Amino acid sequence: MAGGPALVGTQDISLAHLIDPNRTWYNNRRLIILHAWIVLLFITSSTNGYDGSMMNGLQSLAQWESAFNNPSGGMLGLLSAIQNIGGLAGFPFAPYVSDNFGRRRAVWFGATIMCIGVAIQTASQSVNMFIGARFLIGFGLTFAGNAAPMLVTEISYPTYRAPLTSMYNSLWYSGSIIAAWTTYGTFRINGSWAWRLPSLLQGIPSVLQFALILFAPESPRWLMNKGRHDEALRTLAYYHADGNESDPLVQYEFQEIKAALEYDRTVVSNIGWKSLFTTPGNRKRMRIIVAIAFFSQWSGNGLVSYYLNKVFDQIGITGSSTQLLINGILQIWNLGWALYASLMVDRLGRRFLFLVSASLMTLFYMAQAICFSEYAQHGTTAAGHAVIAFIFLFYAAYDIAFTPLIVSYTVEILPYNLRAKGFNILNFVIAVTLIFNQYVNPIALDALGWKYYLVYVCWLACEFVFLWFFIVETKNRTLEETAALFDGEDALDTIMQQAEAHQARDDSEKLSA
Predict the structure, then answer these.
(1) Cα dist. 14→481, 482, 485, 507 in Å?
(2) 286: Cβ–Cβ under 8 A, 6 or more apart, which residues?
(3) CA pair distance 183, 57, nearest whole angstrom
(4) How many angstroms separate the CA atoms of 369 and 388, rounded?
(5) Contact at 8 Å (CB) between 124 and 205?
(6) Which of 343, 376, 377, 428 has the most CB atoms around it within 10 Å of its CB?
């Protein structure tokens, strides 16, 4: 799996001939309904994005600072990190809820807890109450965030799976945009509702999921793993073929899922936490997953995501209105680039996007460091303004890979029986790195100033080297074929042969009947 030519097999077009070109996302009623359910799952990511941007915005509100005695240093770090600490508390349980009770119920359970957390956060009368509420929000988000993207990728129509799963994390910015502009609008309110209103609005996505998610379709892969094959086939047929269970595409998907589940159980024994590290294929997966989890938070983006106001203060932009306005525009910029990249994942490929992203991030972060240094040492106003320009360019580079692919690449390279656990490890590593960042970044920035940027420049260069040698191309494959890719071409052939054998046996049984 070293650098060089990306792995591309003969299965790239395995179901292309089965796709009905007249069945598209905009003219097929069943696909429109399916995508409406997927949007309901997307708002889990929006909730997460709203929280990060809201905390950024609240730090620029004098009303919030005075309500909680002007938190700084360790207390400010705790207020930002406590949501992720709550998430850590939920990690041991989230994959079991997703695997044992279903993807829908896991999302519903998480949404319920988040509704309670938002209510307490909005009514907070002390900093301890606020911290406890954010802990609950993080705890609930772990369950919803574990199940929602897996359900997106497991129910999507094959030709839309990669773009839709990539959009899941990209829509983090939709919540971020709403929070940024909400805090921009409420900072003029005198009194505590300047920060209570943004806190209250955070609960709207969770309320919608609480009310609606149990009516959404369950994952056909989860149903088949539980032995409910007839329900799985009906779900695939209803949304992918207008209810026709004999449709060639539906039969191909059904048999391939059945073969992949059987292969995982009987050949590679992909069951349990230990199996994540016992086979060469799984070790390759985990090496990539852990690395991109670290990279997604340790690429310098944490400085802007959670401490934008501190960066602005150090380059002479101190007005709350200006800080909040730039933050709001930045989130719209991020959303645009992330969605564009999501639509290009199958055309350009995952490997290409990762490598371009890492190289451009290194370049633009180095430029930020130079401009920051010029402003800090000589007070050059133009250099301070240039830092803002390079922040925008840096985020465009970040957004073309790490925003859309961090989730979609992880869930597609994991086989079904390990998907919830492996994805949970990704989220766990992200939470740990976030907690570290949220404590260390403000302290290091205060102590080192512009020199702290040089640490990230060196780290970004190391990221590029890792991605060059270890990222595997996965474009234009079905979910089962992508997962099997890491176990070797023999695994792909075995799954295809088993799928064909299952199909032949089922056809024979139908003829006999």
Answers:
(1) 9, 12, 14, 20
(2) 276, 277, 422, 425
(3) 6
(4) 12
(5) no
(6) 428
Among 379-383, 474-478, 497-501, where is mean pLDDT lowest? Answer: 497-501
**Tokens representing residue 502 in the block:** 């299952």
Longest dimension (CA), the chain: 86
* Out of 133-147, 290-304, 335-349, 437-451, least confident range: 437-451
Interior/surface letters 239-249, b for 16+ CB within 10 angstroms, e for the rest: bbbeeeeebeb
Angle between helices 161-170 and 127-155 (to 10 degrees): 170
- Cα–Cα dist 488/484, whole Å: 7
Write phi, then psi, for 247 (nearest 5 degrees). -55, 135
**How far apart are alpha carbons 438 and 304 in whole angstroms?**
11
Tell me which amino acid residue 82 is: I
Percent of the chain exceeding pLDDT 70 equals: 88
Query: What integer pLDDT is reported at residue 13 of this predicted model?
Result: 47
CA-closest candidate to residue 411, choices 172, 95, 176: 95
Q: Answer whether residue 495 shows pLDDT above 70.
A: no
Residue 327 is given by DSSP the state H
pLDDT, mean of residues 88-115: 95
Contact status, residue 83 vs residue 50, Cβ threshold 8 Å:
no
The Cα–Cα gap between 218 and 148 comes to: 11
Q: State pLDDT tens for residues 154-172.
A: 999 999 999 999 999 999 9
Query: Is the separation of the CB atoms in 242 and 28 below 8 Å?
Result: yes
Other C-beta atoms within 10 Å of 308: how many?
A: 23
Three-state SS at 111:
helix
Q: How far is CA 170 from the centre of its chain?
A: 7
HEC string of 2-26 equals CCCCCCCCHHHHCCHHHCCCCCCCC
